[in-house]
Amino acid sequence: MMLLSTLLLLSGSAFVLIGGIGVLRMPNLYTRLHAASLTDTLGTLLILAGIIVQAGFTLAAIKLAAIALFLMLTGPTATYALANAALLSGTMPDARRLDLPPK
Q: Does a structural domain hold residue 98?
């Protein structure tokens, strides 16, 4: 159990670190938002899963699972709302790097 918990905690921490570096290095809003949303969802869930494994079947584990469920529902929704607000305000994705067919 301790090995599984350590593996989950280390992988979640590495994911958060790599996502944070990605947020700093990405060139525009949409790619930064993508890196931040992956970090927010998967990294946090891995860390919470590691803590749940350490806690065992207790009330604390149930509360952590409820927090994980809440994050799975609200994280992607918030990311979509931010990206939609940016698009509606006129911030366009960088289409120069996409292989779009000519009009």
A: no
- DSSP letter string, 15-78: HHHHHHHHHHH-SSHHHHHHHHHHIIIIIHHHHHHHHHHHH-SSHHHHHHHHHHHHHHHHHHHH
Q: What angle do CA 42, 86, 47 make, to 5 degrees?
A: 10
- Please check whether residue 97 lies inside any domain of the structure: no
Q: How many domains does the chain divide into?
A: 1
Q: 42: pLDDT confidence band, cut at 50, 70 and 90?
A: very high
State how far the Cα of 103 lies from the Cα of 96, in Å rounded to an integer.
Answer: 14
| Mean pLDDT confidence for 21-43 | 90
Give me the pLDDT at residue 17, please: 94
What's the predicted TM-score (pTM) here?
0.81
On the question of pLDDT at 102 being above 90, the answer is: no
Can you tell me which residue has the tokens 């698009």? 87
**Which residues constitute the domain of residue 46?**
2-87
**CA neighbor of 11 nearest in space, from 56, 45, 61:** 45
